[in-house]
């Protein structure tokens, strides 16, 4: 099945998604300092993968947040139609006697923002966390079918 969202390395990308408000930092994977402190601070888990699907009834978001407790995540509605997911994964406590061989898991703050279309009922957003997956459901307004009135033709 062909997707209109570009795919890089088999992953769907929000690079060209007009509804995604994430800022791409081209230097985040380089060992040099980033373009700004804010992007470096929030880019740790900006890769928190989020799927967004639209069903006939709702917009459904699923975010992979392994190892993060629901108390460490905030889901907010901003400016009436922007869904914001923020949180923080704390750094594991280090023991001076520990010898690290590899550190690949990221820690720090993350923020993901999505602009929802006008049909989203932002006052009825529901969120649930289960097995490291945050599911956010935003109901949609029913599409009103146009009133069709038959007109009798005389003659």
Structure, explained:
- The protein contains 1 helix and 9 strands, in the order ββαβββββββ.
- With 155 residues, the protein is mainly beta.
- Strands 3-4-9-8 form a 4-stranded antiparallel sheet, with no helix packed on it. A 3-stranded antiparallel sheet has the order 5-6-7, with no helix packed on it.
- The protein is rod-shaped.
- It starts with 6 loop residues before the first strand and ends in a 16-residue tail after the last strand.
- Residues 1-15 and 32-46 have low confidence and may be disordered.
Mean of pLDDT: 76
Radius of gyration: 21 Å
Q: Name the helix and strand elements from N-terminus to C-terminus, one letter apiece.
A: EEHEEEEEEE
Largest sheet: 4 strands, antiparallel
Short description:
With 155 residues, the chain is mostly beta strands.
Descriptors:
disordered N terminus; 32% strand; 4-stranded antiparallel sheet; single chain; rod-shaped; 155 residues
Topology:
Layout (H helix, E strand, L loop, with lengths): L6 E2 L2 E2 L24 H6 L7 E5 L3 E7 L8 E6 L3 E8 L18 E8 L10 E5 L2 E7 L16
Antiparallel strand pairs: 1-2, 3-4, 4-9, 5-6, 6-7, 8-9
């Amino acid at each position: 099945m062909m997707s209109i969202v570009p795919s890089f390395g088999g992953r769907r990308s929000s690079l060209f998604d007009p509804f995604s408000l994430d800022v791409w930092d081209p230097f985040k994977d380089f060992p040099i300092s980033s373009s700004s402190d804010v992007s470096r601070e929030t880019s740790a888990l900006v890769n928190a993968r989020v799927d967004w699907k639209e069903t006939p009834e709702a917009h459904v978001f699923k975010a992979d947040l392994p190892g993060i407790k629901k108390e460490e995540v905030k889901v907010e509605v901003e400016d009436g139609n922007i869904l914001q997911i923020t949180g923080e994964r704390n750094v594991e406590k280090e023991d001076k006697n520990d010898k690290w061989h590899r550190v690949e898991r990221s820690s720090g703050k993350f923020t993901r923002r999505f602009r929802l279309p006008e049909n989203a009922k932002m006052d009825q957003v529901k969120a649930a966390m289960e097995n490291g997956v945050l599911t956010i459901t935003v109901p949609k307004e029913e599409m009103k079918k146009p009133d069709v009135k038959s007109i009798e033709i005389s003659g």
